[in-house]
Design a protein that fits this description.
Chain lengths: ~500, ~350
């Protein structure tokens, strides 16, 4: 066999101050191969890819890329243009398309000089057409990007990379925003592309799809490559162990008899500007000792539901009752008073005040408690001892209780929020994307705490885009689609996937 | 390529050394125009030093100048901590001064210990009212307070002119647009005989200390900081964001109003349209220089007052244009602000790729 390597990362290292983000990482990629890059958050996947793209300059190490003839050449480091010229394309998790351009214009944008634009349009259209034919990446070329679905937008991003003659494609968590069906289509397209000789690196958290669609798996932990395995030799347990360095704790759950209702929604309608902010006459009951999971693709009304239960928005009609009491004013203090604990979706934006200390953040929701305030002044002694205690109980690791909360990692920020919310012993817990972006250890801790609250007698409203999480934690699963709630009567992945896509089953 | 990132923990050496280095570079830079104007640099700086530390009189003059700056610096500090950009301290200062004049020129006859608190309260209330409007417009309609407070300054100044030509005009003022004098019982007592420094300074220092305690120890200060640092999280946590903002606005306006009372009842004795040479605006510089710390405001107000008074004396003593004094002041401020930036941020040069 001739040289089939297309990319070789040699001993790449990168430090940020005292943090080692990547430590002598070696990775090879072959022609037509799908390589899955796995690792917990903060394992160094993003840093590695940023070095490949020239966004970061490695402290040491080199990168070799094959040219069209298959000859390996060293890549000029620290220059994104050099990476593009060498045929490396990237599809980011958050799309970078302009909504008001047509699909074709979006694909061309950046590749043509403005002067030759019109002249080459026809040829460009033909080239895009040929790529679509070869790969099956169907996209309406003359439609505005703003009107496309998320899955279609992602295809446009990939088409754009291929149009730029990418021979190596990096996909950063490509299925995070897709329904299971859309994800399957994506992997079919990837399959077709690799048959054409394209090589793919895809970054993912989801073990299931990594096992189903990759050829080889590389696992990073603490910036080091800790494992490399042919997918045919791997199973979930093997990979999970590589990622966390130990077997993943399984969330223990016992069957419990649901108690009295803690949340009741009756014909609640929220009129938003669009589907993202609307609910259409929904009914929902959550009882004590019960976790109800809301499954759905983001932007189907989850935020309207969460904002209302958080007290940040009022419904236009219908009523909401917490522990049997009707809520007439929708404000955060009213919800706190009613016994609703709220774990916000965007923990950095809504959950903590980064420039204030860990101790101060821990009492953020308790400023009116007699223990926290006396004659209008903060009871520093209580606040500090409370913070010490909670940091220990909830294992909040960081530079200490007086350090700014922004210095904590995502997982520790979430633990801080859990500590704050759970210490108030809420009857109803709104957990909105509680483990998004967390590593497995922190995610398992969140799950354990939610289960603990359920045992204690709280009801949990779990909103998540991670179907695996919903299936693992929920007693009942409800699918949200287009502002409506539909109870799923079985925990069958296929059925729920179809419901998430709006099919009636 | 240049990258700017915040320093994790500025070292002690930096926090002390940087201001000294920036003050020295300011003096070096200011030497250029001074030399060009034909002045002897050493003589010039000697006069500047003498203008502040040369005599008790010089020193107390500096403190007199620092007094309103402490008030306006605190006004800016409290508002800015809540991310409420009150640019209207100048106008609120005049509102406070007007209220002091209305109440303190014979409307009420009372002994000092009653009348002085009354005019302080009147001035603070007037200043607070001046900031309440923009705060209401911001929380109710989202009106940008930078625009509303800035424009109000001009409206208030014109209103003041109208008042000084009309109802507040001193009939004994020989036609000058000035108010009647403040009655003796409303005058803030002097601190030293034959010196202009007055008890407004003491009030300013007390207010700064109270502001420091409130900001760091009270629930009110906690809420203010929380709203300023992350309003979304504060709202989510149940803190009344609008209420906190309006509270900060009212206190900020009241402090600016006190600056006006202090100037009119402590120093001038009557009100004219040139009561403040931009104390409201300079207060913003004072606050930024102090890193929005109430105690820091006292230090930076003293520093800026020293530069003002020293440069003024220098230009008179060696006979150079007073514009040169302004130039020295401006250069000092720029250098110290750059110095503060350097102390807080690291500027690193990233080398180009060498593959």
């Amino acid at each position: 066999m001739t040289e089939s390597r297309v990319l070789s990362l040699n001993n790449l290292s990168k430090r940020f101050g005292s943090v080692v983000a990547n430590d002598a990482v070696n990775i090879e990629l072959h022609r037509g191969e799908v390589l899955a890059l796995l690792g917990e958050n903060g394992a160094g996947k993003t840093t590695l890819m940023n070095m490949l793209f020239g966004h970061y300059l490695p402290d040491s190490g080199s990168i070799d890329v094959a040219d069209e003839a298959g000859e390996m050449h060293p890549l000029t480091l620290g220059h994104p243009q050099a990476a593009l010229d060498a045929g490396i394309g990237m599809v980011h998790q958050h799309f970078t398309l302009a909504e008001n351009l047509t699909v074709l214009d979006s694909i061309l944008l950046g590749s043509e000089s403005l002067l030759s634009w019109r002249h080459n349009r026809r040829a460009a259209r033909e080239k895009v057409g040929r790529i679509i034919e070869r790969t099956g990446l169907a996209a309406p070329l003359d439609e505005q990007v703003g009107k496309l679905t998320v899955g279609e937008r992602q295809r446009v991003e990939i088409l754009k990379a291929l149009y730029h003659d990418a021979r190596i494609l990096v996909l950063d968590e490509p299925t995070a925003v897709l329904t299971p069906q859309e994800a399957d289509t994506l992997f079919e397209n990837i399959d077709a592309m690799t048959k054409e000789g394209l090589s793919v690196i895809f970054i993912s958290h989801k073990l299931r799809e990594v096992l189903a669609f990759s050829h080889r798996i590389v696992v990073l932990r603490h910036g080091k490559k800790v494992g490399e395995i042919a997918t045919s030799d791997a199973d979930e347990r093997v990979i999970a162990r590589m990622m966390v360095g130990a077997d993943t704790p399984v969330t223990p759950r016992e069957t419990m008899e649901p108690g009295a209702p803690v949340l009741q929604l009756k014909a609640v309608t929220v009129k938003g500007d669009n589907a993202r902010t609307s609910l259409h006459s929904v009914d929902l009951t959550i009882r004590a000792h019960e976790v109800v999971g809301i499954a759905g693709v983001s932007g189907n009304g989850q935020s309207a539901l969460a904002r209302m239960v958080s007290g940040l928005a009022s419904p236009d009609s219908g009523e909401m009752m917490v522990s049997g009491n009707k809520i007439s004013r929708f404000t955060p203090p009213v919800m706190q008073e009613a016994g609703v604990g709220r774990i916000p979706e965007d923990r950095h934006h809504d959950g903590v005040i980064g420039a204030m200390s860990v101790a101060e953040n821990l009492v953020l929701e308790r400023l009116n408690d007699a223990e926290v305030r006396k004659h209008g002044f903060l009871q520093q002694k209580y606040i500090r001892s409370q913070a010490e205690e909670l940091s220990k109980d909830y294992d909040i690791r960081g530079p200490g209780i007086d350090a700014d909360a922004r210095l904590l990692s995502g997982g520790n920020i979430q633990k801080l929020i859990l500590a704050r919310v759970f210490e108030c012993m809420p009857d109803l817990i709104l957990a909105n994307q509680p483990t998004r972006g967390l590593d497995m250890g922190a995610a398992a801790e969140v799950a354990r705490r939610l289960m603990e609250a359920r045992t204690r007698g709280a009801g949990v409203l779990l909103i998540s885009e991670d179907l695996d999480e919903i299936l693992a934690l929920s007693d009942r699963v409800i699918v949200i689609h287009d502002g409506q709630l539909i109870e799923a009567h079985s925990k069958d992945r296929e059925t729920i996937g179809l419901m998430m896509a709006g099919e009636h089953v | 390529m240049i990258r700017i990132e915040p320093r994790e923990a500025p070292s002690r050496w930096w926090t002390i050394g940087i201001p000294v280095v920036s003050a020295l570079s300011a003096l070096l830079l200011a030497a250029i125009p001074l030399a060009a104007a034909g002045a002897n640099i050493f003589e010039a700086y000697g006069e500047m030093y003498k203008g502040v530390f040369g005599s008790t009189f010089a020193f107390t003059e500096m403190l007199t100048r620092a007094t309103p700056l402490i008030f306006t610096g605190l006004a800016a500090t409290l508002a800015f901590r809540a991310k409420l950009w009150n640019i209207g301290a100048e106008g609120q200062l005049y509102l406070g001064a007007m209220a002091a004049v209305v109440v303190g020129t014979g409307m009420i006859d009372a002994p000092s210990f009653v009348l002085i608190p009354i005019i302080l309260l009147a001035g603070a209330t007037a200043g607070a009212a001046g900031m309440a409007g923009p705060a209401y417009l911001k929380t109710k309609f989202g009106a940008d307070e930078v625009v509303t407070t800035l424009l109000l300054n001009f409206i208030i100044l014109i209103f003041l002119q109208m008042m000084l030509e009309g109802p507040l005009k001193d009939p004994m003022g020989m036609g000058w647009p000035q108010s009647e004098p403040i009655v003796d019982n409303a005058i803030l007592p002097q601190l030293l005989p034959r010196m202009r420094v007055h008890s407004g300074l003491i009030i300013a220092l007390v207010v700064a200390a109270v502001a420091h305690v409130m900001m760091s120890k009270s629930v009110w200060g906690f809420k203010l900081r929380a709203v300023g640092e992350n309003a979304a999280a504060a709202l989510h946590a149940g803190i009344g964001v609008k209420r906190t903002l309006i509270g900060a606005a009212v206190i900020s306006g009241a402090l600016a109003g006190l600056a006006g009372v202090s100037e009119v009842a402590g120093l001038r004795g009557y009100l004219t349209t040139d009561l403040s040479p931009g104390f409201g605006y300079t207060g913003i510089v004072v606050a930024m220089l102090a890193g929005l710390s109430p105690i820091g405001v006292v230090i930076s107000a003293v520093f800026i007052a020293s530069i003002f008074v020293g440069a003024d004396t220098m230009s008179r003593a060696i006979g150079v244009s007073s514009y040169l004094a302004d130039l020295v002041v401006a250069l000092s401020l720029i250098c110290v602000l750059i110095g503060g930036f350097v102390a807080r941020y690291r500027i690193t040069r990233t080398t180009k790729g060498d593959a």
